[in-house]
Model the fold of this input.
Amino acid sequence: MNEEYALELIEKGRRVDGRKFDEWRKIEIVPNIVKNAEGSASVKFGETEVIAGVKLEIGEPFPDTPNEGILVVNAEFSPIASPDFEAGPPGEDAIELARIVDRGIRSSKCIKLEELCLEPGKKVWCVFVDIHIINHKGNLLDASALASLAALLNTKIPKIEGEKILRGEFEKNLPVQFKPINVSVCKIKGNFLVDPTLEEEEIAEVKLSLSVRDDDVICAMQKQGSGELKAEEVEKIMDIAIEKSKEIRKMV
Amino acid sequence: MSEKREIVLPGEFLCEKAGRKVGSGAYFEGEKVFARVIGIPNIKENEVSVIPLAGAYIPKVGDRIIGKILSVEISGWMVDINSPYVAFLPLAEGVSEFVDISKTDISRYFDVDDIIFCTVSKVTKDKTVQVSMKSIGSRKLHGGVLIKVNPNKVPRIIGKGGSMINIIKNKTGCEIYTGRNGYIWIKGENKSKAIEAILTVEKESHVIGLTEKIEKMLG
Amino acid sequence: MAKSEVKLLIDGKRLDGRLPGEMRKVEMKVDVVSRADGSAMVKFGNTVAIAAVYGPRPLYPKYLQEAKSGILRCRYNMVPFSVVERKNPGPDRRSIELSKVIRLALEPAIFLEEFPKATIDIFVEILQADGSTRVTGINAASLALASAGIPMKDLVTACSVGKIEDTLILDLSGIEDNNSECDMAFAMMPSKEKITLLQMDGTLKKEEVKKLMEMAKDACAKIYEMQKNAIKEKYR
Done:
């Protein structure tokens, strides 16, 4: 509804909520929000809210990585979060979001999957990260990635007795060695905006998301939207993302 | 500073019927009248109703509203009126001159995304809605920006006899049209100030001294 | 209901220290999802439910529309990490049945005739499950409907009651739910004294059914006050 207005303001160098182009909304992270999960966190970027939960199950490793644990990331765009979300299996947006978050965690080697092997070739820990959108007010991707990371950081591995998992009794923390942070940047009329709101996402010509690791290495990139980017613009966005990722990493 | 407003909830007892007319927002069972929406009770000698604090806009005949053209049909236009119900603007209610539809493309009068200030002229039992541009003051609104507010807050945004909205218009020099359906159209250099003021009234509608606060805010 | 070896009552107290007729700690908050027309979060002990309402809104496809009245649609869903053993996302048979009973618990209270051809959509998400999720969801949905301005005859209030080791109890936790001789889900419009949900699983004599319904009614009266306070809190 307020898209024309948002565009007018941006052309004048301002945003509807008064933020600078490279400013995050108020970010709130609440770890351990769900007791039945092995790890969990709720993250708010302004009014956008996402909850991520981590459950650990025992399973068979993939044949090509017999000594590594398994990571599965799933996202639900719950119909509570927006009038445009329908009940049903994940659509292309939910699937894309889950896969981007997965790439950020996997490529960065955030989780030491080699330490999740119970019996080589036979039994490993499977780490299920379930992302659940609670309220959609823009930038679900960065909020989901942060919620997933925050949840993994407080995930504990349960004790095992023979074949049984002793839920509620823990052996140690999930081995996490890096904190990859996702930063999405929108291009609107030649301006680059960080942490877009719902209206800003609608009017953006193109969006580029990057997952940045602690050592400024880029672990994942995804261009979204039907617009185009020049190489210099990609470089500019990378610089913005690397700088902005540091602000978020301090919070988690 | 908040006024203590007595809010009623669905199911709360309001009063004995005692010959009163039971208006919107209330219902009766036998001789007892209850609230049926969340709102402010309005109990008078010969009528009882509840002024709702929330809820979608359900069109009523006579409402002055703002609509956005959704599609151009053969003899009229479908109009988005911020309601679960879409309205229809018939050709004869939109244009005063004679139009030969076999020769004319009527989008020259109203096209998709055009914004109009109009009146609800008909609402049937199954909520088929018709609007008209024939009432005085109805017009197409050019340029400007359209915003959406909670339709139940519109009376507060307008104020008694227009007191609130006139302050905002005068202090910002903007042209403002308020639709009973929650669509508001603003045009002018200072529209961001006007929009900020309107959204503040929407959020703090229950606060006493709001008029003074808005005056101060607009300087 | 399987007879269990788990002792649920020790010296007249339940595993979490409660007396048989005692409810868990209840928390209620409205407006937790700003995109929705109405929303609420309700907690009974460790069971946490969020409900969001969208509507009245246009209903598509058109053949689903009712010319004379609106319809109510409801979806009950448990988040994968809400339970001890991860639940695969998506509806299972239990969720589908619960979606239906929750809808029918709320429908009698809503003036659907006001909204021909439209739909009111209710979504209940269980974020954490420790027994009595459907009644927690109904309490949240009721708040969400009222704060969305949907016209209703009354709020709908719900609770669970049951029997463990020959003792009648109120507000079953997860372990009690799984090991009870009987559990009953109950919902009503408190000021109309009309019951809109009654589900029972287990074995009960007629007198026990009456006693449990009395217990549920009394509990609902208390929960009703909490619901009213939660909404009025928003306007203070």
In short: The helical segments of chain C are 93-106, 133-147, 174-179, 206-234. Chain C has a mean pLDDT of 93.
